[in-house]
Design goal:
The complex is a heterodimer of chains A (166) and B (573). With 166 residues, chain A is an alpha+beta fold. Chain A has two domains: 69 residues; 82 residues, Glutaredoxin (3-Layer(aba) Sandwich). In chain A, 49% of the residues lie in helices and 11% in strands. Chain A has eight helices and four strands. Chain A has a four-stranded mixed β-sheet, covered by helices on one side. In chain A, α1 runs parallel beside α4, α3 runs antiparallel to α4 and α4 packs across α5. Chain A starts with a helix and ends with a helix. By secondary structure, chain B is of the alpha/beta class. Chain B has three domains: 75 residues, Ubiquitin-like (UB roll) (Roll); 119 residues, Alpha-Beta Plaits; 365 residues, Rossmann fold (3-Layer(aba) Sandwich). Chain B is 34% helix and 14% strand. Chain B has 20 helices and 17 strands. In chain B, the strands form five sheets. Chain B has a five-stranded mixed β-sheet, sandwiched between helices. In chain B, strands 11-10-13-14 form a four-stranded parallel β-sheet, with helices on both faces. In chain B, strands 12-17-16-15 form a four-stranded mixed β-sheet, sandwiched between helices. In chain B, β3 and β4 form a beta hairpin. In chain B, α2 packs across α3. The longest helix of chain B is centred in the middle third of the chain and has 20 residues. The chains are: A alpha+beta (166), B alpha/beta (573). At the A-B interface, α4 and α5 of A face β7 of B.
Chain lengths: 166, 573
């Protein structure tokens, strides 16, 4: 919760950016989606404090903002890691055993899909098809694609990202 | 506007352009079933109950949102329609918590009613409620999402009230109604107006029941039980017993309460009169002493909470008068107890109110302990039924002294504009003893915002009356921006005022979507006012006695102790 309060705090660089986004779009009907996307780009996720700033800025109920945030899977209420892992659970990857990859990731990092490690290094999400079905099963870490995965390859990949993040 | 000619089930009708099939069907005396549709509140076409066949349309169309066109032929009762509606109902029932017998809405539930009409099988699909926890954190409203059918009428009602405490959360099968951040209702911006409860077609939203402590007190010989009933309850209680909307059942109501157990029954219109004496005096003092203007009425606890949460900068504008419920509680536990030598802790005070917010009002710091239980019109109706009292057959009885005789001004408190009119009658008389006008038609009726200027003794008084918090917000924003200037503003949280309160009887959609409930109920109060020989609160003999025996004069030190209160900012979004 502390992190969230800091997230919406007045005067911060992030807050200044958010205020500017709200100011620039508020007159446009249907601007909420755009503002939420921008806010998520600024903060990495959409904590309640940030949603409150947006609700107040637009003069709409917080419940409306929260409803939109929870409707779309592109928005996250939880912080994301420095290394954002997306495991493809699309048809091709799934039949090639991507569920086992996800399981191994959860085991190695000690978190569930949709969560972030305490040190903030990794977060896991699932996605549907990254367009690399020929390499199934596939996962992405940041912008990097890893294909033809097997559960025993997972640890090595995570270690390399740990090294690189030092 | 041009008319459109079409046929509904082969019946020719002509309706204004832009009408929906649902509206046209009404003109043809054909009922199309609805669940998510509620007149003036929600029209989104999502529940799929009102699907009909219409020429020019490919599949079935939602009658509540589909516009009519020239030459259209609509069939509302075909095999295809009936099958589709039955399936919709069976799908809704597949996740519905089937605790119908103990449900407050048993026999008064739209889902139950339609399931019976269409012969829907509640076990056609395996029944698996979604397993939501009941949220009873709020002092008045209780939410059971396992009974919810996601019609979103409550969300629309709350948004229309400019509160927006609830909204749809998540997507698909996980969609449910709740507050932002998933917090409990008590931590949301809910003002307790209960419009969501009145909007709910099923038993997903109810008010907390306070019936048990009343039964207990009635059977406790160490307690003296007194009831007092709010102005609008007499105009609506009859509906619980299938009497026509707008029947004034004051005499039967008093008789029925007396038959619940050993108690006395008082008329809350008396403290409505008392409120007027205090409020009119406060208004004139504010004008004279250049106090904070405009002054706002403070009788409505939903409105007061709304100001404290959303417009705290206007707190100094609120009249310091307690609401009539608050005043009556104070009066009983002081004046009445002293006069009759009763220990206040042995006096059990029950108010009967049209409202859900009055349930949290009795727990406000300066009011706590004065009223023990606030019962809604619905709760009183259910107690009368439990007691086996044949309500419609009762002979009329009169309220008990010393709180029986009220003025007509006190009675019209239950409708939007009523407080304003009652206050104007007295304020005008206080300014100009020769002022004879008692009717102020400009502030009557159910229009959202009413404005007028009256000149009394050379002083122009600019007034505004609004009901429904959406309209209240408009008035406040107009005052804030300097667009409008007023001296006295009356606000009631519920559209139409207390006659349409969150504690009033829930009538079937078929009636609510066709009749003007607010207008019919209010008419009963204005008729009573007209028939009353005493029109001004200041002319009531009870008021005269109270000031002579106890308070001295309006706004006196004693009056401030018992009849006035203060407010505290509590910002929420």
């Amino acid at each position: 919760m502390k992190q969230c309060e800091a997230a919406g705090a007045c005067g911060s660089e992030q807050r200044k950016k958010l205020d500017a986004v709200i100011e620039a779009s508020r007159a446009t009907p249907g601007c909420l989606m755009h503002i939420l996307q921008e806010a998520q780009a600024i903060y990495g996720y959409l904590p309640m404090e940030v949603q409150k700033v947006i609700a107040e800025g637009l003069g709409i109920p917080l419940s409306e903002v929260y409803g939109v945030v929870t409707f779309y899977s592109q928005f996250s209420l939880k912080p994301k890691g420095k290394n954002r892992i997306s495991v493809c659970l699309g048809t091709a990857c799934y039949v090639k055993g991507s569920d086992k990859i996800l399981e191994e990731l959860e085991k190695q990092l000690g978190i569930k899909c949709g969560e972030c490690t305490e040190d903030g290094l990794f977060s896991i999400d699932s996605c549907r098809c990254v367009g690399a079905c020929g390499l199934a099963p596939v996962m992405m870490i940041g912008e990097e694609v890893y294909g033809r995965l097997t559960p025993d390859k997972v640890k090595g990949i995570l270690d390399s990202h740990r090294e690189a993040s030092k | 506007m041009a008319n459109v000619n079409l046929k509904i089930n082969n019946i020719p009708v002509s309706v204004p352009e832009g009408s929906t099939i649902l509206e046209a069907a009404r003109a043809a005396h054909v009922e199309i079933p609805t669940l998510c549709y509620l007149k003036d509140v929600n029209c989104v076409g999502s529940c799929r109950m009102c699907l009909v066949e219409a020429t020019g349309a490919r599949g079935l169309v939602a009658a509540c949102v589909y516009p009519v066109s020239e030459g259209m032929e609509v069939k509302t009762n075909t095999e295809k329609c009936r099958k589709s509606r039955k399936m919709t109902l069976e799908l809704l029932l597949s996740t519905h918590k089937k605790k119908c017998l103990s449900c407050e809405r048993n026999h008064n539930c739209e889902l139950q009613r339609l399931s019976a009409e269409y012969g829907a099988d509640e076990d056609y699909f395996e029944n698996s409620p979604r397993g939501y926890a009941i949220d009873d954190s709020n002092p008045c409203v209780v939410r059971d999402n396992d009974k919810c059918i996601n019609c979103m009428r409550c969300v629309a009602a709350c948004k229309k009230q400019h509160v927006g405490a609830i909204g749809p959360i998540a997507r698909g099968f996980a969609t449910h109604v709740g507050s932002a951040g998933g917090v409990e209702l008590k931590d949301s911006s809910c003002v307790g107006c209960g419009q969501c409860v009145v909007a709910c077609p099923v038993g997903a939203l109810t008010l907390k029941s306070d019936v048990d402590p009343v039964w207990k007190a009635l059977s406790d010989p160490s307690k003296k039980v007194v009831f007092f009933t709010a102005p609008s309850v007499r105009a609506t209680l009859g509906e619980v017993f299938d009497m026509p909307v707008g029947t004034n059942v004051e005499g039967k109501m008093v008789a029925a309460i007396r038959r619940l157990g050993d108690c006395e029954v008082f008329n809350m219109d008396i403290t409505a009169d008392l409120t007027i004496m205090e409020e009119a005096t406060e208004l004139l003092n504010r004008i004279k002493n250049k106090g904070t203007m405009p002054m706002f009425t403070s009788c409505c606890p939903g409105w007061v909470k709304f100001v404290e949460q959303s417009f705290p900068e206007f707190i100094p504008n609120l009249s310091t008068c307690k609401s009539p419920q608050g005043m009556f509680g104070g009066l009983l536990k002081t004046y009445y107890c002293e006069k009759h030598g009763i220990d206040p802790k042995d006096l059990f005070v029950v108010s009967v109110i049209p409202c859900s917010a009055k349930k949290h009002e009795i727990k406000r710091p300066q009011l706590e302990g004065d009223v023990d239980v606030a019962l809604t019109t619905r709760e009183l109706g259910s107690m009368i039924k439990t007691a086996g009292i044949k309500f419609t057959e009762l002979e009329d009885e009169a309220f008990d002294d010393p709180f029986a005789t009220c003025s007509g001004g006190g009675t019209i408190f239950g409708a939007t504009g009523g407080v304003m009119e009652a206050a104007l009658r007295v304020a005008a008389k206080m300014l100009d003893g020769k002022f004879e006008v008692v009717d102020f038609p400009e502030v009557r009726g159910v229009s959202p915002i009413k404005e007028a200027t009256y000149t009394v003794a050379g002083i122009p008084v600019r007034v505004a009356v609004a009901s429904g918090l959406e309209n209240a917000a408009t008035v406040l924003n107009d005052i804030k921006s300097g667009k409008k200037q007023y001296d006295f503003v009356e606000i009631m949280a519920c559209p139409g005022g207390c006659v349409n309160g969150g504690g009033q009887p829930t009538l079937p959609d078929s009636i609510r979507n066709s009749a003007d409930l607010k207008g019919l109920r209010a008419k009963a109060l204005y008729t009573s006012d007209k028939e009353n020989k005493i029109r001004l609160s200041s002319d009531s003999p009870v008021i005269e006695t109270l000031y002579k025996e106890y308070f001295g004069a309006p706004n006196s030190h004693k009056a401030h102790e018992v009849l006035h209160t203060s407010y505290k900012a509590n910002p929420k979004i």
